[in-house]
Structure formats: structure tokens, C-alpha cells
């Protein structure tokens, strides 16, 4: 089986995989330069329309991955699956969904982790091993994967991919224990942030890392169970939210029913703070906190910490709209739609060069001249990474006639790379790691610049009420305090390899 791919103006035939199952990855290098969530996962157990439910669930998680999508379904005997490049609605049609027969499924949407955008990156990955078929969908990053891979290779394992997922599959396959215990042993060897959905011909296993770094929730539709990266995916299929998957937890669903178990004791709870700040949809709930409400509180707290007199408040769409409303309500300054997003363009990081990135901002956003002209504007945004996008947006407002542009960021300065599933630039390229706030203000051409304090962020999310360390959040990208070991003799890697 071969698939044709196009590279630039040159067309070539390339064998991406052979046989019945796909089992190839393309690496974890990344040429993009701003915050990027890697993927979303969705699983169904015990519903005759598992494929259709996964389709709608993945559609709700589309913001977590716009490059590729895939669904694998089990009917108790065989796997049926389909993956493709593009949006969920582009990858699947009525006929493809109808061909995915079974009452158990896992699905995945993802962004690229390398400049080579190919079908070979799409998940779920599907493997054959001694006990049958195995499919895995994951969100996150295994920090010690290079070290484990090297040890497995030295003991005779032959790898065909560069994906973290294959490491987990090898660890499971090499174990002499039955599947569930083998999976527990394999997961205990992993360090990092991950949310896994694993499916065999007759089982669905759900697991979260011991710190709960990547979000994963459970819901019910009648007698069926559903699992998703965000609760918004439950709403779209009419599922009732049950609870978040706990750190170190492992759930087993099979013909014997639903079993709550764990592969390890929970460690310091540390859900990624950027989920609240930027990645998750505003209609999702994480750890009992609604994202829209939390972001409004961030904006309100920002107004208390760094008030500036102005004529209007506007938010950078879409993730900063809620915070801008909160800032406006707290200050009494009118909220206006000063920036409009073109919904038919992707996020700016998909552009491979600096020139195209800046042009991408122009295509993505427009300033509303009649709203901002002659006005002092408070521009609310969620983060500053390199500063190039922020500078372009500030200049858009100035070109539209804004007399002043004051930038308020509803997160602390982003100074450190993420090792748990967000692709970030090298620390030396993060503007906050080498410039002061005043220097950053000059760089982005703003009249003033202020960031939300860590305390303000935790308070806004409601974390202090939980009694957990740092409100149960991972703030390592802000304070360099990583919840796990990240140095494995130079073998560690950041970003995401899902």
C-alpha cells in the first residue's frame, strides 16, 4: 500500500506504511515558534454509535489539533480505523463513519510536531502484538523517552518510529504479564505529562500521569462511558460530566464492566496552567472551574493589579475575550470589539517563516478602525512568547488610529520551555527570559505593559481554595519549578511527541 505525497513543487511516491496497520512516525522536531497545544483525545466504551460519537467529540476538540484526525473502532474481534490530514470534517464523511463499526473507539486530533506534515503523523497509532491488536491515542510528552528507547534498543528492540507512543507499545509487548498489569508496569516507567487512551480488541484503558499535567475527563451517555481532553466534547454528544481522571489513575473497561484502578500513587497535582489561560475552550470545565469564568476573573484581577486609564478595552480573539470582559467590568471602561478574527485562517504558528508569520497575523486579525480610532486602548492578551505577534497586533491598532495602546497579559511572563506537551521555542528565544518588562514594552511598541502575577493567576482560577501546592497548577513555564525530573543526562526533550 503506497500513498502519494507532494513536497513543494516536486511530487513523489512514498511508502508511508505497509501491511494492514499503520506504524510509522516522523520525528519530534519543530520549526514553529509560538505556543502550541498538541492534540485532543476522545474515547467511547459501550455505545453502538461509537464512531459517530467520536466524530462529534473530536469536532468539539478541533481547537486542540487542526492538522490531522483519526478514529479507531473495535467490534470485539477486529479493528476498523481511518486517519487523514486536515480538519475532522475534511477527514471523515458519512461513508467513512458508517464503515467504522463497533461499540468501542478512540479518536485523536493533533498539530504537527515537525515541519514535515504527513499522514504518517496521524493517530491513533495501531500495532499488532502477541495478544492481538493495540491502538493508542495520547496527549502529552514522555520526558525520559529517549533514555527508555536507548535501553530498549540495546536489549534488542527494533524501532520503526520516532514516536513516544511506540516506546509504550514496546514496554507493554515485552512484558510477560497480562495486558492490564503490563500496561501498569509500562506507565510506571514513564516520566512526563500524558493522557493515554489504549484500546485492544476487547478492552479500553484510560490513564493519566501521576501529576495530572494533561487534562482528561469522564462522562456518561446512558450506560456508555466517554472520555475526552475537555468537557466541551461531552456536551456536544449529550453526555453527562462525571469527573476528572485523577493523577496516576488507570481505568479498565471491558466485558466485565468498569474498574477503577491506578498504576501509581498520585504525586503533586500540577494541571497545566496554560489550559486555563489559553488552550481549553471557554465552555469547558477543568477541576471544577469553568474556563470562561476563570478567564473573566483573570481580567478582573489584572485590572486590580495594573489599572490604566483608557477609553476602551479590547481582547485579542478568541482566547482573551473573556479576560477582556472581566477587565472592563472591573474598571468600568467599555468593552469593544476592537479586533476581529478571520475564522477561516489557522493559528499563526503554522507559518514556517518569520515573514509569513507576520503576514499571517495580518490575515488573521483586523482592527476595527471606527472603534479604535482616536481612542486610548487597553489590549488584553493571554501571553507573550517571542513578542513578534504582540508587536504586530499593537501596530494594527495604531495603524487604525489608536492614540495609545496599553497591553495587559493575563499570565506571568513566559520564561521557560514546556516539557509536558506544549511545543515552545528554545528558552533563548522566549522574550521574557532575556528582556525586562520595560524592554518588552519597547519591543512590542506598547505605551505600557503589565503581566498578571502568579498569585493573581492562582487566585483567579480558584486554586487557593483547593489547598494544593500552587493551587494544583503547573507553573513551570513561568517560574522554572518543574513537577518532574526533566534532565536525563541530555536525553530529555521538550514539546510533544504524540
From TrEMBL:
Catalytic residues identified in the record: 39
Primary enzyme class: transferase
Gene3D superfamilies, A to Z: 3.40.50.2020, Glutamine Phosphoribosylpyrophosphate, subunit 1, domain 1
CDD domains assigned: GPATase_N, PRTases_typeI
Sequence positions that bind Mg(2+): 319, 381-382
Cofactor binding notes: Binds 1 Mg(2+) ion per subunit.
InterPro entries reported in the protein's UniProt record: cNMP-bd_dom (IPR000595), GATase_2_dom (IPR017932), Ntn_hydrolases_N (IPR029055), PRTase-like (IPR029057), PRTase_dom (IPR000836), PurF (IPR005854), PurF_N (IPR035584)
Binding site for [4Fe-4S] cluster: 272, 418, 474, 477
Domain Cyclic nucleotide-binding: residue ranges: 158-260
Required cofactor names: Mg(2+); [4Fe-4S] cluster
Organism domain of life: Bacteria
EC number: 2.4.2.14
Keyword Metal-binding (UniProt): yes
One of the protein's GO biological processes: 'de novo' IMP biosynthetic process
Keywords assigned by UniProt, alphabetized: 4Fe-4S, Glutamine amidotransferase, Glycosyltransferase, Iron, Iron-sulfur, Magnesium, Metal-binding, Purine biosynthesis, Transferase
Annotated catalysed reactions: 5-phospho-beta-D-ribosylamine + L-glutamate + diphosphate = 5-phospho-alpha-D-ribose 1-diphosphate + L-glutamine + H2O
Any GO MF annotation of the entry: magnesium ion binding
Record's signal peptide: none
Pathway noted in the entry: Purine metabolism; IMP biosynthesis via de novo pathway; N(1)-(5-phospho-D-ribosyl)glycinamide from 5-phospho-alpha-D-ribose 1-diphosphate: step 1/2
A Pfam family: GATase_7
Glutamine amidotransferase type-2 domain: residues covered: 39-256
Family: In the C-terminal section; belongs to the purine/pyrimidine phosphoribosyltransferase family.
PANTHER family per the UniProt record, alphabetical: AMIDOPHOSPHORIBOSYLTRANSFERASE
Job description of the protein: Catalyzes the formation of phosphoribosylamine from phosphoribosylpyrophosphate (PRPP) and glutamine.
Name assigned to this protein: Amidophosphoribosyltransferase
Organism: Paenibacillus graminis
Amino acid at each position: 500500500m503506497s500513498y502519494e505525497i507532494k513536497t513543494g513543487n516536486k511530487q513523489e511516491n512514498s511508502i508511508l506504511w505497509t501491511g494492514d496497520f499503520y506504524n510509522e512516525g516522523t520525528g519530534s522536531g519543530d520549526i514553529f515558534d509560538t505556543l502550541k497545544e498538541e492534540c485532543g483525545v476522545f474515547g467511547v466504551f459501550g455505545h453502538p454509535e461509537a464512531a459517530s460519537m467520536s466524530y462529534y467529540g473530536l469536532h468539539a476538540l478541533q481547537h486542540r489539533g487542526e492538522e490531522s484526525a483519526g478514529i479507531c473502532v473495535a467490534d470485539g474481534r477486529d479493528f476498523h480505523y481511518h486517519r487523514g490530514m486536515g480538519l475532522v470534517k475534511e477527514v471523515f464523511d458519512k461513508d467513512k463513519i458508517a464503515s467504522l463499526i463497533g461499540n468501542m473507539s478512540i479518536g485523536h486530533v493533533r498539530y504537527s510536531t515537525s515541519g514535515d506534515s504527513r499522514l504518517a503523523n496521524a493517530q491513533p497509532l495501531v500495532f499488532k502484538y502477541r495478544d492481538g491488536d493495540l491502538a493508542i491515542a495520547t496527549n502529552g510528552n514522555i520526558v525520559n523517552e529517549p533514555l527508555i528507547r536507548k535501553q530498549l534498543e540495546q536489549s534488542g528492540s527494533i524501532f520503526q518510529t520516532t514516536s513516544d507512543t511506540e516506546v509504550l507499545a514496546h514496554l507493554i509487548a515485552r512484558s510477560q504479564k497480562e495486558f492490564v498489569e503490563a500496561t501498569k508496569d509500562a506507565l510506571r516507567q514513564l516520566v512526563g505529562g500524558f493522557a493515554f487512551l489504549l484500546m485492544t480488541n476487547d478492552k479500553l484503558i484510560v490513564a493519566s500521569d501521576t501529576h495530572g499535567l494533561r487534562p482528561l475527563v469522564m462522562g456518561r451517555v446512558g450506560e456508555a462511558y466517554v472520555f475526552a481532553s475537555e468537557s466541551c466534547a461531552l456536551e456536544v454528544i449529550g453526555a453527562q460530566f462525571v469527573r476528572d481522571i485523577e493523577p496516576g489513575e488507570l481505568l479498565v473497561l471491558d466485558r466485565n464492566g468498569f474498574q477503577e484502578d491506578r498504576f501509581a500513587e498520585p504525586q503533586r497535582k500540577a494541571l497545566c496552567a496554560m489550559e486555563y489561560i489559553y488552550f481549553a475552550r471557554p465552555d469547558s470545565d477543568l477541576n471544577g472551574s469553568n474556563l470562561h469564568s476563570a478567564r473573566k476573573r483573570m481580567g478582573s484581577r489584572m485590572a486590580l493589579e495594573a489599572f490604566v486609564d483608557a477609553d476602551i478595552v479590547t481582547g485579542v480573539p478568541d482566547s482573551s475575550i473573556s479576560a477582556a470582559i472581566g477587565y472592563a467590568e472591573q474598571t468600568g471602561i467599555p468593552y469593544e470589539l476592537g479586533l476581529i478574527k478571520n475564522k477561516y485562517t489557522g493559528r499563526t504558528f503554522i507559518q514556517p517563516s518569520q515573514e509569513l508569520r507576520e503576514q499571517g497575523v495580518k490575515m488573521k486579525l483586523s482592527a476595527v478602525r471606527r472603534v479604535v480610532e482616536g481612542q486610548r486602548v487597553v489590549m488584553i492578551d493571554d501571553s507573550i512568547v517571542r513578542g513578534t505577534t504582540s508587536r504586530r497586533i499593537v501596530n494594527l491598532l495604531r495603524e487604525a488610529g489608536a492614540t495609545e495602546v496599553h497591553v495587559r497579559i493575563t499570565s506571568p511572563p513566559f520564561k521557560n520551555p514546556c516539557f509536558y506537551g506544549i511545543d515552545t521555542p528554545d528558552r533563548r528565544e522566549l522574550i521574557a527570559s532575556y528582556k525586562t518588562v520595560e524592554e518588552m514594552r519597547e519591543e512590542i511598541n506598547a505605551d505600557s505593559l503589565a503581566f498578571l502575577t502568579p498569585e493573581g493567576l492562582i487566585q483567579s482560577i480558584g486554586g487557593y481554595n483547593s489547598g494544593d501546592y500552587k493551587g494544583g497548577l503547573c507553573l513551570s513555564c513561568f517560574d522554572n519549578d518543574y513537577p518532574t525530573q526533566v534532565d536525563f543526562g541530555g536525553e530529555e526533550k521538550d514539546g510533544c511527541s504524540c
